[in-house]
Design goal:
213 residues; alpha+beta
């Protein structure tokens, strides 16, 4: 008569730990790859923003002028002063003539239509005289450092860049949290881990509480 041998079940805890360790490594390197270039950009622009007053900038201002044809000028004769875009044919003509696309909401008054065109690293505007059709436009360029700083702040960057900032921020959160998990896993072999983490928290906290007024 054969005796049945019972094979003890393998402990599940080591397998579960290995699974989560593998997931932490996986998502840590994925999030680091997604956010790497963004982190570099924001680190550099963090320095340029912190020293904005020391970085010399010579704004370049360019102007343009034109006269709107009478048939298109007639499309601006409405007395409605509600903020709204100028008609598409007028906007296309202005873009072809002076190289600016006045697609934003315009400010309407009895004698003028004014379109503000803020942009990263500069500003711009287009004004149209509703009586004569005279168009005046101006563009200010404050240089590439100002442009990068505005990307950092999300100033006048549009919807696509806003989505990028959200996705980038999410990737940074995943990168930080998975990094924290990996620190916890390896902390036993690296005694300086938690003192360094506490130091990273203490330095900005002390500066914020005692040196910022």
């Amino acid at each position: 008569m054969h005796q049945l041998t019972t094979i003890p079940a393998r402990p599940r805890k080591p397998a579960r730990k290995a699974f989560w360790l593998k997931q932490a490594y996986l998502w840590h390197w994925i999030s680091s790859a997604v956010s790497l270039v963004g982190l570099l950009l924001f680190a550099i622009t963090g320095i340029t923003l912190n020293h904005a007053g020391e970085v010399e900038s010579s704004p370049k201002v360019s102007t343009a002028a034109a006269t709107l044809p009478a048939p298109l000028l007639a499309q601006l004769s409405s007395s409605d002063q509600t903020a709204r875009p100028i008609p598409s044919p007028v906007a296309r003509w202005i873009e072809d003539e002076i190289g600016l696309a006045p697609s934003a909401n315009a400010e309407w008054s009895d004698g003028e239509v004014y379109v503000a065109l803020p942009r990263p690293g500069g500003d711009g505007w287009v004004a149209i005289d509703k009586t004569t059709g005279a168009i005046t436009a101006e563009v200010t360029d404050r240089g590439w450092v100002s442009w990068l700083n505005d990307l950092h702040k999300g100033r006048n960057t549009g919807g696509a860049w806003k989505w990028f900032l959200d996705i980038f921020s999410g990737a940074c959160v995943v990168f930080a949290l998975t990094g924290f998990v990996l620190l916890q896993i390896h902390a036993k072999k690296r005694p300086s881990t938690w003192p360094l983490v506490v130091l990273g928290l203490a330095i900005p906290a002390i500066l914020a509480l005692f040196f910022i007024h």
